[in-house]
Amino acid sequence: MRSGIELSAVDETVRPQDDLFAHANGTWVARTEIPEDRGRYGTFDMLREAAEEHVRTIIERVAAGAPTDGSVAAKVGDLYSSFMDEERVDALGAGPVLDDLERVSRVRDASDLMRLLGELARDGVPGPVIPFVNTDDRDPDRYVVYLEQAGLGLPDESYYREPQHAAILEAYTPHVARMLELVGHPGAQGAAERVVALETRLAAGHWDKVTNRDPVKTYTLVDRAGLEALAPGIDWTAFLEGMQAPARTFGAVVVRQPDYLRALAEALAEEPVEAWRDWLAWHVVHAHAPYLSSPFVEENFDLYGRTLSGVPQLRARWKRAVTLVEGALGEAVGQLYVEEHFPPHAKEAMLHLVDNLVEAFRRSLSSVPWMGEATRREALAKLEAFTPKIGYPDTWRDYTALTVDARDLLGNVRRANAFETDRNLAKLGGPVDRDEWFMTPQTVNAYYNPGMNEIVFPAAILQPPFFDVEADDAANYGGIGAVIGHEIGHGFDDQGSQFDGRGELRDWWTTEDRTRFQALADALIGQFSVLESRDAPGTPVNGALTVGENIGDLGGLTIGYAAYRISLGDEPAPELDGLSGAQRFFLGWAQIWRGKARTAEAERLLAIDPHSPMDLRANAVRNLTEFHEAFATAPGDGMWVPEEERVRIF
What we know:
Elements: H1 20-31, E1 40-42, H2 43-64, H3 72-84, H4 86-92, H5 95-105, H6 110-123, E2 129-136, E3 139-149, H7 166-182, H8 188-205, E4 220-222, H9 224-230, H10 236-243, E5 253-255, H11 258-270, H12 273-288, H13 294-309, H14 317-341, H15 344-365, H16 373-384, E6 387-391, H17 409-425, E7 447-449, E8 454-458, H18 473-489, H19 511-529, H20 543-568, H21 581-592, E9 595-597, H22 599-608, H23 614-618, H24 625-631
Parallel strand pairs: 3-5, 6-8
Antiparallel strand pairs: 1-9, 2-3, 4-5, 7-8
Helix pairs in contact: 1-21, 2-3, 2-14, 3-14, 5-12, 6-10, 6-12, 7-8, 7-13, 8-11, 8-12, 15-16, 15-18, 15-20, 18-20, 18-21, 19-20
């Protein structure tokens, strides 16, 4: 039986006791160059590339099969063809956005602006606030509209105020000017300066990413009258008319950042309409640039690829075409992907893994010393209510209402966004669809949804090194097992623990238990806040931003290892490739985080990503006594953490 460990990646010159990541992956890191079209590259990216190739093959085969006009197969082929017809796209130049820009030029007041913002939001142009439909955190048996802060062209509000982002901000204004010049916008340089000034004002009203992680702070439920009182002067009627949304759409609204909405209302009242026209013109061009002619694509990539992420080369056109098809018709392609790349026995094996992970969590929650009996009962009830989704949805999405034209790329993009807008608005007032998936089967990722108390594992992640049905269990539990544990753990992290078993945001903890839990979370924040990734030396991790994912990793490791022990029953683990079962478990974990990043991309992710860098995720094992026992670590070793300083939550 295979051990499941890729020995060719291992660097024997580094001891696992000193640096597990470097030991498990050092040879791979040394010999691997990051592809020219990527900011970082690792296990996830390699699997995504493989999935992308598989999807490309499916799309091209479907398109070559002369499908019936109007069929889903024809839509897949026509959408792909519309993107691949570079000659036509280049010949059209700025033409496809000129009508939108003409509408922007006719905006005369705040009501005109809100109506046009609604129209453009329907077509996929984000405005200063983004509405989306989701289950109500306080009443998970119904859908409501959420309003999310937006309006910025840079990744985060911190880019407009923090010194470490000054070079990016300095490059942003000339980029906006060049993009506006490409569409013949009058006075492009002055317009760009007004755009950046307005965005800087909006950014000042934004909540930061740490605050936005708090599900209680970001829940303010209002009715229509309450919304108008919160943000006086914003013409929501015009906005909804523009979106073609029913008037009842804002009958119940969760405002995620009330302070921002007040700041937006003030900006709409105080900033001249000319500045808003410049701002909206820029966002129209920015949103549609990837679907316009080469000058737009290149200029867009220059800032968002080269400058922001340090990526030297634009992704091949076919890859970008696949991304478009995935976004618009993802489940249509996913159905074919599953038929070819996800055998039934893989799902059966995964369900067995999940059962062992849930049992390990049950045992942990029954005995963790910091949790009192009242909280423990609720936690166990929540665990029993977990819903696992493996591979693919039971019901596939219906794309009948989506029209696709092989000669109209930007029109297809607009119609795909409008289709999705209508699909989500139609949820309001209806029963909650608990079978819905928020990732396609060909997505290499996984997620926990607190509002439905579900863990979801698409088919594409269920392959080596995460999961190999032919390999020994140890590496599988260190890979996909720990990932399952990570996602279940999100149900009990600093955010997920505020939702109960039915997905309701409510406080089901005793004060004493929450205090003890928070002390452990604070210790983890402190531990990570002094760490730096090898890809971005000198820039420490934001421990408060990453604490939820770090808790997830810690829980995934702890419970994944316990589940592995359960899987062994009374049998001893075999030794394979000279490694014990425990050693293979931890090496399996480290190898799923194999990767490297360009410095610019690593720094960008440190500013906005709630996940810690890959190498630090691999080395999170330093908190587990089981790791120290497996590799016989000792004081003075690089991975050594004194027992009293190890953080153990589950």
